[in-house]
Automatic annotation (TrEMBL), chain A:
Gene3D superfamilies: 3.40.50.880
Function according to Swiss-Prot or TrEMBL: Catalyzes the hydrolysis of glutamine to glutamate and ammonia as part of the biosynthesis of pyridoxal 5'-phosphate. The resulting ammonia molecule is channeled to the active site of PdxS.
Record's catalysed reaction(s): aldehydo-D-ribose 5-phosphate + D-glyceraldehyde 3-phosphate + L-glutamine = pyridoxal 5'-phosphate + L-glutamate + phosphate + 3 H2O + H(+); L-glutamine + H2O = L-glutamate + NH4(+)
Active site: 81, 175, 177
Protein name: Pyridoxal 5'-phosphate synthase subunit PdxT
CDD domains in the record: GATase1_PB
Name of encoding gene: pdxT
Native organism: Streptomyces achromogenes
Gene Ontology molecular functions: glutaminase activity; pyridoxal 5'-phosphate synthase (glutamine hydrolysing) activity
Domain of life: Bacteria
Its EC number(s): 4.3.3.6, 3.5.1.2
Pathway: Cofactor biosynthesis; pyridoxal 5'-phosphate biosynthesis
Binding-site residues, L-glutamine: 49-51, 110, 139-140
Family: Belongs to the glutaminase PdxT/SNO family.
Pfam family, one: SNO
Length: 201, 301
């Protein structure tokens, strides 16, 4: 089967690290900033960054609505940190006018683990990732307050939800793209492959 | 699914410090002196703000010793926005840095814009939980700062002038120095380290990576959307804008325009649109008329 083409939303954030991780997980990875670029990918990563900045730029440059439409239509999507916030149906403490793409029935709290001085590393067991725990890098990280019936919790840290999957949408509070361990990206690439296989049936 | 608590979470690691800067890439960090300005910056799409008492243009004008800002003022800005807040300490003034860490700022800029407190030593940045960004004019200087624990590097430029020429010079120098390292073999890297006055291990790492091991931003003199896009096309991963925004005619509009041009730095049409009707830019200073004693880039070594 052809190699899946996976975009990384490149409005702001750690785009480069995701492109490298996706390529290492055997996908063709490319940055996406415009609606026409979004139309050409099989799946999309929403990187870490500033969720307020990314959401403003997405609205301003007309990619917010196409993003929502594709996520609603089932395009596989993976968000880390700011990307997790963007995938939440609800933010507990949004900045005024802060919009999300939505896609996962969950409520998130931004910067829930604290400011930069509280940023930390900890090992995390992620459902669906075999072998050693994942090295979790949490940077001013959000957590998930609660999930709806359709969303599956994949990992917790210290009693807080830090990884969730609902259908073709995957989200983590932490940053696997900063670790050199590409197993979470491989899981996502598999989701994209599975989606393409299902569509071609 | 299980909760993993076999190992205590670790704060202040090189990975969370450098990783924090990775999250700022492609963004604009804006100097602000009040909570109101911080909100304008956040609304315009800034990825972080730099809290300081006077912007560099005013520091130049006022003269005297420039120091860390008042803690009340920094806390006021921390409370006003949800994006990260940075603040400046004087070069070598590790107690100012300790104070900033205790206030909970997200990044400390050990900055040549303030009056240096130590003419020999920079602060030991490894001993802090809060990450540091430092200015550099060339690769050797950048690597010396990284050796001291800096988790992010910016060009120095010439802050407070509204003149991008020095930032261009520094960024070209850093990128050029890196490109030259790429062409050297293993034997030559030892002599290169000596010439750069930088640790061999870091020199070798840069030669292999083809980039700094930390994020590289541009700073000093960016005043327009095209300036910001220029710095990105020259290889900066993001930009600091100091006096350029709040010393201009319409700060909110200019701030938003610089954010747009930083994201679409390679799209002249978008940069053109962002550049329309911005009102007065800050009045610039020509760097070649600045006496050496007033050049901030000469501070630090």
């Amino acid at each position: 089967m052809n190699t899946p083409v996976i975009g990384v939303l490149a409005l702001q954030g750690d785009v480069r690290e995701h492109l490298i991780a996706l390529a290492a997980a055997d996908a063709v990875a490319r940055p996406v900033r415009r609606p026409e670029e979004l139309a050409e990918v099989d799946g999309l990563v929403l990187p870490g960054g500033e969720s307020t900045t990314i959401s403003k730029l997405a609205v301003l440059f007309g990619v917010m609505e196409p993003l929502r439409a594709r996520v609603r239509a089932g395009m596989p999507v993976y968000g880390t940190c700011a990307g997790l916030i963007l995938l939440a149906d609800k933010i507990l403490d949004p900045r005024s006018g802060q919009e999300t793409i939505g896609g996962i029935d969950m409520i998130v709290r931004r910067n829930a683990f604290g400011r930069q001085n509280e940023s930390f590393e900890a090992s995390v067991d992620v459902k669906g990732i075999t072998g050693d725990p994942v090295e979790g890098v949490f940077i001013r990280a959000p957590w998930v307050e609660s999930v709806g019936a359709g969303a599956e919790v994949l990992a917790e840290h210290d009693g807080h939800i830090v990884a969730v999957r609902q259908g073709n949408a995957l989200a983590t509070s932490f940053h696997p793209e900063l670790t050199g361990d590409h197993r979470v990206h491989a899981l996502f690439v598999d989701m994209v492959r599975g989606d393409r296989a299902a569509e071609s049936l | 699914m299980s909760t993993t608590e076999n190992q205590a979470p670790e704060t202040g690691t090189a990975r969370v410090k450098r990783g924090m800067a990775e999250q700022l890439k492609g963004g604009v960090i804006m100097d602000v002196v009040t909570p109101e300005q911080a909100k304008i910056a956040e609304d315009a799409g800034a990825v972080a703000v730099m809290a300081l008492e006077r912007v560099p243009a005013d520091i130049r004008k006022d003269g005297g010793v420039a120091r860390m800002s008042d803690p009340d003022m920094i806390e006021g800005i921390i409370d006003a926005v949800s994006i990260p807040v940075m603040a400046k300490s004087r070069i070598g003034h590790f107690v100012e840095a300790q104070v900033l860490q205790s206030l909970g700022v997200d990044y400390i800029d050990e900055s040549e814009v303030l009056t240096p407190a130590d003419e020999v030593n920079h602060s030991d940045k490894w001993s802090f939980t809060t990450p540091f960004v430092c200015g550099a004019t060339n690769l050797g200087e950048a690597l010396r700062r990284i050796a001291e624990g800096a988790a992010m590097i910016r060009s120095k430029g010439e802050a407070g002038t509204g003149n991008v020429v020095e930032a261009v010079r520094h960024l070209r120098q850093i990128k050029g120095d890196i490109a030259r390292l790429r062409g050297l073999d293993n034997h030559e890297l030892y002599a290169a380290a000596k010439e750069l006055r930088a640790p061999y291990e870091l020199v070798k790492e840069v030669a292999e990576l083809g980039k700094l091991p930390v994020v590289l931003f541009s700073a000093g003199g960016v005043a327009t959307p095209a300036d910001a896009a220029l710095m990105r096309q020259l290889g900066a991963e993001g930009v600091f804008v100091g006096s350029g925004i709040f010393k201009s005619g319409d700060p909110a509009k200019r701030a938003a325009a610089i954010v747009k041009a930083t994201t679409f730095y390679d799209d002249p049409k978008i940069i053109a649109d962002a550049s329309r009707n911005l009102g007065e830019a800050m009045v610039g200073i020509n760097c070649d008329t600045l006496p050496d004693t007033e050049r901030y880039a000469n501070r630090g070594w």
